[in-house]
Amino acid sequence: MSSVIRVVVADDEPAYRNALQKTLTLMPECELLKVCNDGQEALEFCIQNPPDVLLTDINMPRMNGIELIRRLLKQEKGVMVVVLTVNEDEDTIFDAIRAGAIGYLLKTSTPQDVIDAIRLAQRGEAKITPRVAAKIITDFGRVKEEEEEDESELYVLSDRESEILDLIAQGLRNKEIAQRLCITEKTVKNHVSNILKALQVNSRTEAAMKALKSKLVETP
Question: Which of 36, 134, 153, 197 is the most buried (most CB within 10 A)?
């Protein structure tokens, strides 16, 4: 894996775009491919030049961030998306996660939070600010089903995958899971990929949410 992290930024606020660019200069491994003014521009560029990580706002002209995530990940599943926004309402958070975002930060986050989120995303791991995480936990019980499904639906997971899913729900990263279970990080990544397929979700965060809701793991 290359040590360079190729990044695209999508945000319609000039001041915040400039702040992000300054933040990214603090990452020697970051290669900023493009700064886009709206979702449509970002979609077109990312399809032609897929980055490792896309940093995107939610409210943008021409195409909002949620639609950008959905449409981009249909064609470029390897792009990791981190949302940077002022929106902290529950519906927006869940829509972004369902669309496939791996991280969700508020624009009040520190530059180090943003840098950490990019580095984690490049490894396929999630970064969510405490305020957003609190909203997910608080409002978890009232999330409405998007489609009717049998509450007793079975997910075919091996014992090891169930064990790893439980650790994901506890917030452990791949490296920490590997150390806890005395297996390689590559093996953990393979199991995580199988878990996402079995649960029919796009990210670790969504997997943890679905596992908790379906009582596949204990509530933390």
Answer: 36
Q: What pLDDT, in 10s, does the model give residues 42-82?
A: 999 999 999 999 999 999 988 999 999 999 998 888 899 99
Instruction: Give the CA distances from residue 33 to residues 10, 24, 55, 115, 129, in Å, rounded to whole numbers and listed in that order.
Output: 11, 11, 12, 16, 25
Measure the N-to-C terminal CA separation of the chain; round to a whole number of Å.
Answer: 33
Q: Name the token pair of 60.
A: 């943008």
User: Last residue of a domain, which of 108, 139, 170?
Assistant: 139
Structure tokens at 156: 């075919």
For 99, the 3-state DSSP assignment is: helix
Full residue range of the structural domain in which residue 161 is found: 150-213
Report whether 111 contacts 26 (CB < 8 A).
yes
Helices and strands (DSSP H and E) totals, the chain: 10, 6
Is residue 23 domain-shared with residue 125, that is, in the same domain? yes
Q: For 4-35, how does the pLDDT look when each residue is reduced to its tens digit (9 = 90+)?
A: 999 999 999 999 999 999 999 999 999 999 99
Q: Does any domain span residue 144?
A: no
The CATH code of the domain that includes 172 is 1.10.10.10
CA separation for the pair 70, 21 (Å, rounded): 25
